[in-house]
Amino acid sequence: MYFRVSTVTAAVAAIALVAGASSASQAATGNVNLNISKGGVVIGGTNGTGTMRLGRRTYPLVVSGVSCCFTFGGSQAVLTGQIANVRRASDIEGSYSASSGGLTIGAGQQSIMLTNAKGAVLQLTGAQSGLMVNVDLGGMTVQLAQPAPRVGRRRR
Fold first, then answer.
1. What is the enclosing helix (H) or strand (E) of 82?
2. Domains (range + CATH), the chain
3. Chain Cα centroid distance, residue 94
4. Distance of alpha carbon 4 from alpha carbon 66, whole angstroms
């Protein structure tokens, strides 16, 4: 009886290990480029666009968000990096939240790592410029942009 139980336990553990390894190997990594503008007085807003390269396809992105607590001024950031742990392009969509604080006078570097509810991990770095003081709670929402309608021949 002991041999049968341990054999079943070992078989279940092996199946779980193989299933976990195959799902992890299906996750992909892509490249992300974002142009983000942020500004406000007390309440701040974030707006931007970008692209995600996943496999052989490039997807347009839209970024938006609101922050609260203390924000004064405005800044612009050009960020590049990677998106990890995605299985399909829509996995980048969602809310990414963070608490932040900083002072931007002129130009400087920014580095940030964010995760959404789907488990997608954004790691971004880049240049930030402007005049801004902030200590706030906020975040951003990333969505796949709707492609522009194609102009061409009409179907009959």
1. strand 57-86
2. 28-144 (2.40.128)
3. 8
4. 58
